[in-house]
Design brief:
Elements lengths: L2 H6 L4 H7 L2 H8 L2 H19 L3 E9 L15 H15 L2 E8 L7 E4 L5 E4 L11 E2 L9 E6 L2 E12 L2 E7 L7 H4 L10 H22 L5 E5 L5 H13 L4 H9 L2 E4 L10 E2 L1 H8 L2 H5 L3 H6 L12 E2 H7 L3 E4 L2 H10 L15 E2 L6 H4 L2 H11 L10 H4 L7 H29 L4 H32 L2
Parallel strand pairs: 1-2, 1-9, 2-8, 9-10, 10-13, 13-14
Antiparallel strand pairs: 3-4, 5-7, 6-7, 7-8, 11-12
Helix pairs in contact: 7-8, 8-9, 18-19
Amino acid sequence: MDEELWYENDRNPIALLNKITKDRIETLLEDQSFMQEYRKIEKDYKNYISKQPNKEKTIAYFSMEYGFYDNIKIYSGGLGILAGDYLKEASDNQLNLISVGFLYRYGYFKQQLTVNGEQQAILEPHNFNDLPVTLLRDEFGNPMLVVVNFPGRSVYLKVWKLMVGRNPLYLLDADNDFNADEDRSITHQLYGGEWENRLKQEVVLGFGGIRLLKHLGYDINIYHLNEGHAAFINLERIGNLVKEDNLTFDEALEVVRNTSLFTTHTPVPAGHDVFTEDLLRIYLRHMPERLGINWDNLLQLGRMDPTNYSESFSMSVLAANTSKEMNGVSELHGEVSREMFQNLYKGFFANELHIGYVTNGVHYPTWTAKEWKKLHLEYFGKDFLSQLGNKEYWNRIYDVPDEEIWSIRQLLRQKLVDYIKQRFEDNWVKRNDNPKRIMQVLNAIGVIVSFYPIVLKALLDIIDKFLP
């Protein structure tokens, strides 16, 4: 549509559409080649979206971050990328997955190095008009608001909907005029601020997220907690069962456990969020009454050793105590997690615990280079995209001539190096580095790359010669 404008706006399609000129659109409408390609894409999209999710079971997925693309800055790393891929894969497989998170004003900071090698954290605000989000409104046209009670005040959350294929992701937003300044910053930055702000975020995600789904009328069968950040959803659910269904705390806990799955990502104890009792008393002092228990019983839900009154309250322990299923994100991480949480299950060895693993995968259409996609389509067949888990299709890679695979490897390697060189150059220009040094490094990268295939081929020849 407009290649220059596309890159000026960081390949953001909505920003492109918001800024493209009327004259350019009229020109494109007269371009038969462009319109033919446009209609093909439109047809493919309509065919995809017409296949609705299977409504037999509904899964609710809660996470502090989701990684789709770097224009939507609501993620920081692997945890968010995994969550984003889960949502896309669920849509492709017609699973009814409803998700809840935050629409951050600034997202996660970008890193930049100064000439002296010091890190700078750069915050870039979102322009919500350039994002694929829709503000939910009530029957009177006013913004829908979810309310979470804080000490002496209420926090009002706007709700934005981002469609991930066939399924909705609801994003809570506290940065609005209904809230005090101290609360508007709750959704300013992912993992930003001091520990009190982190607790606020997790209270809002847990209590606010469940209240949102209840207000929208969803009948959820399974709740998935992506890391301990989301553990407060289970306290809210227990409170609802005690109040509305007249269950005892133990009965409500059993119901919640049997419908909850907890995925842990962090392999070291220091990486799990913990809060002091004094801080919890500020924001959760009303919870024991709602749950039908006392304050000590509540704290025990978040302690590895319930009798250790000096132990801080762990969100991961709370998630483990209120979830029947629990998994790490690789086979090794499953083993590490069983060791970490062993003290929760007295009388059992680590290898006897129920904590399993699901090795991280990736969303094929997102992460596979177009060159590989073209090759897979040619050799694997048209049904391949609907059979990604079928090993029989993947075995057809042995039918592909080695020269074709090598050619693609070479092309993608060159693309990677060109990208790295451009990134280096852009960053050095931003920090006013020495131009002579920039050219020396870029030229050195080019020399290394030019010799790499020769060296690699020599190594392969040696292997072929000496190994059977």
